[in-house]
Amino acid sequence: MALPLMPGNSPNAQLGKERFHKSQHFLVHSGSMVVDLEKPGIGGEPLIGQKKVPKYSVYPKGEARDLPSWVAFDKQTLCFEAYFKEAEFDAKVETYRIRKCKIFFYLEDDTIQVTEVKFKNSGLPQGTLIHRHRIPLPPPNDDQFYNVYHFNINKDIVFYSRTFTVTNCDLFTKNFLSKLGLSVNEPATVPEDPYTNLRQQHEASMNPLRPYERLHPLKQFLENDGKTLRFYCLWDDTDSLFGDQRELVLHYYLADDTVEIIEVIPPNSGRVHVSKFLRRCKLPKNAPVQMKPPGAVTARTVLNVFGSMNEGKHVVLDSCDIGAATDEFYKDSDLAIGKEINVWGRRVLLTDCDEFTKAYYRFKYGREDFTPVQHKAPAAPKPPKPVPPYNGFGSEEDSLGNCQGLMPKPIQKDFRKFMEKDSNGLNSNVLSFKARMITKDPVHRERVFLICYYLSDDSMSVYEQEQKNSGIIAGKFLERQRVKKPGQELFKSELSEYFKAQDLYVGGSICLNGVHFQLVDADDYTLGYMELHSDEFPITNIGTIFSKLRSISEDKQKEVRTFLSNNTPINDGFVPYESFRDLVMGLNCGLTEHEVLALARRYSEHPVHKEDVPLMLAVAQHYLKRNHFEDYNLLSARFVHSDRQKSGRLPVEEVRNICKAFVLPIPESLQEALLTEYTDGGGIDYHALVAGLNWLEHPAPAVMADDILKYEVSARFNGGRSGLRNINCSKLVKEIFSFSPIKGEAEAAAS
């Protein structure tokens, strides 16, 4: 009975295989074609009796990451301590020698290097015994190479017929082998070498026939080269004729304990400038001294010379330097702030030092007192420079610059402030307020103005909004410029004060060139910017507003309870903005209109406003038609080119960038509203957007002037006072006064 043809039941060994190629059996060796007998058979499988030799080591393949070994194990090396015994046949004293060495195994490519520790006067060519390369295993496995699994402590390893015994390894190697799952053996001891011990005993018993003194100035130079202590000094030479106090700078070189002094010559002092007050040398403490005779100052002292001319002369040196002439020189321990040093008969006072010198003495000697010595009289105050009053020509800053020097210089603007506060993308850094004139004239009282304050240069501009049948031409009312505060004298020596951003807030009044304005509203960006930077605009600080509300009397709090109990139960704690404003302003706690607006924005609900898409498209076509924009084919081609997936949709940011590249003559607020309306989960349908904007093929009906102004000026203030609908008064009162608007409690308090 035959078995069904299913996995596991078929004796066919080829079932499930995918590779049936025939391996290449030819290699190029020394420029000629040869046959490689070690190549595998069909599908890369080894032939009968053939062992598969790995091309690379079995380790490493990368640790927890799919990286090549030369990246994962770069600059990582295993270090083993080992020795090998070398037989000596020609020596009489020794029969064998123990030679210590180190074995380095490089994990990145499985190469091995063996170096021998150098010993003095060994007579052997020590150093690198085996250069770095992959070492094959001993025969008969010489077709394979050593890998990390062949190494362990207290184990013999054969490199080219020489047996090395591994005795120990470093901590990194031990941890690495443990992570591989290898059991690291205990360290082994190195056997003693009789000849080496004999040499060491012989050298320890040897004494030099001629005692000598060990001088190692090179160590001090290598450790302190380039390190210099700097002291600021004072030489009081007022006792001499025509003498005065002279400032000096002392440099102490730690490399060789030498001193160099440089004089600080002030300008217009009448002194000739010299390069150095004292050249670099060792400074003796007891100077000036008598000059030493020749041969008195030497590195060695000769005690005697004996011997005849035929036998040769012998020299005996004084190792204790008993007869040598010695002088005391200043060291780094002798220098400190407040001390006097002798500079060849001149008393020099150390008054101060630099930071490196302080750190040096703090680390080496533990000093902490580095109080400088005050030797200079306080500088006399500079006499004030009288500035003539402004004469009316040019700007005040330009006229002041002409009085400060013979060569007039242009006015330096605050470039840092300009770079930080200049418009960047959707962040315009422009504060916009809606204002009205303060006047008794009913015609001018109804005029609406847009006051813009530019944070980059503190300038202001005023635009008048067009009013239907007003008889007044709308447009630019005040050119962008810095505006002076009123009530200042014109011809004066001081600079005038200009309006700042903190002077503009909702409910406040300003006077621009004699015209008084009342700020009645602000756009959403302005209110958000002022609330975000409450440290610059204290009027929007919620903590200050809460403090004013908490300071009201108990009678006012009862009025708040009564108001909430009568209004909030019906609307779930929400009241209209006008009612909320009347309530807060009636508390008489010193809140301004802008503070009430900031408080209402914090506790207001934000309903979703539905835009009229056909009206927005009609207004957009009006702007495009007025500016003669007709490149709709190029705009569509650019959208199609950016759509790599050919899905008919693009992300919002990419559509915005393309519209900016084509410089569409549409107001920014209207453009953002259109992009928002055309955005869904998969992006923007650019075909529908271009079709709606195309006034040549799909013209929209004509629009009224009020609709155009809605997206040109008025739409900027939708997030201001007009955008506030209902205020969560219950949450506000609970956070400030810590009570809930319960009707029963309010009635009990009122009775």
How are the elements arranged and paired?
Elements: E1 26-29, E2 32-35, H1 69-72, E3 77-87, E4 96-106, E5 111-116, E6 128-133, E7 155-159, E8 162-169, H2 171-179, H3 194-205, H4 217-224, E9 228-236, E10 245-253, E11 258-264, E12 278-281, E13 302-306, E14 314-317, E15 340-343, E16 346-353, H5 355-364, H6 396-403, H7 415-421, E17 430-437, H8 442-445, E18 448-454, E19 459-464, E20 475-481, E21 509-512, E22 515-522, H9 524-532, H10 542-550, H11 554-571, E23 574-576, H12 577-585, H13 593-602, H14 613-626, H15 632-642, E24 649-650, H16 652-661, H17 668-677, E25 679-680, E26 683-685, H18 686-693, H19 705-712, E27 726-728, H20 729-737, H21 743-750
Antiparallel strand pairs: 1-2, 3-4, 3-8, 4-5, 5-6, 7-8, 9-10, 9-16, 10-11, 11-12, 13-14, 15-16, 17-18, 17-22, 18-19, 19-20, 21-22, 23-27, 24-26, 25-26
Helix pairs in contact: 11-20, 11-21, 12-13, 14-17, 15-16, 15-18
Subcellular location: Cytoplasm, Cytoskeleton, Cilium axoneme
Organism: Gambusia affinis
Domain DM10: 74-181, 225-365, 427-534
Provide the CATH topology of the largest domain. PH-domain like
The largest sheet is: 6 strands, antiparallel
**How large is the radius of gyration?**
47 Å
User: How many domains?
Assistant: 5
Which class best fits the helix and strand makeup?
Answer: alpha+beta
InterPro entries: DM10_dom, DUF5580_M, EF-hand-dom_pair, EFHC1/EFHC2/EFHB
Main location: cytoplasm
Domain DM10: 74-181, 225-365, 427-534
Protein name: EF-hand domain-containing family member C2
